[in-house]
Amino acid sequence: MTPPRPFTNVLELLRGAHLRPTQQRLALARLLFEQADRHVTAEQLHGEVVGASVRVSLATVYNTLHQFIEAGLLREVVVNSGRSYFDTNVSYHHHFFFEDSGRLLDIPGEHVTVSGVPKLPTGATIRRIDVIIRVDRDRVDPRRRRAHSLRCHQLFRPN
After folding, report:
1. Cα(19)–Cα(72) distance, integer angstroms
2. 140: buried, middle or exposed (CB in 10 Å: 19+, 13-18, 0-12)?
3. Is 1-89 a CATH 3.80.30.20 domain?
């Protein structure tokens, strides 16, 4: 049995989403999807891909992220008018947003109840309700943040 080639999983992911697997898409998809679910800005992802010695512009990163959203591979989480995160977890969930550190933490959808939704305009339907709970004082030591985030993710995942 031959070992799988690098990028095999992301190659299948892109093909399944009907996206042509260009070098840039493969590199970005590998950074996004070959680890645990994550929240990343376009600028952070651009820094990671450049650090991996892949030549790609920030505009290409943005374009690719939006193509991934259209394909259903990512969700965009807008925390304010000037800041968006791209979320690899496309399941139904909400977020804590730590305003001091800029970190997002997933909250399972079933842990939040929304009531008092106003009457919708004629012909409109609710597609999704996104809740962002803004908090301060992100007390997780930055050196332990990744491990803490993974533990929180595991705690919130159904068995």
Report:
1. 11
2. middle
3. no
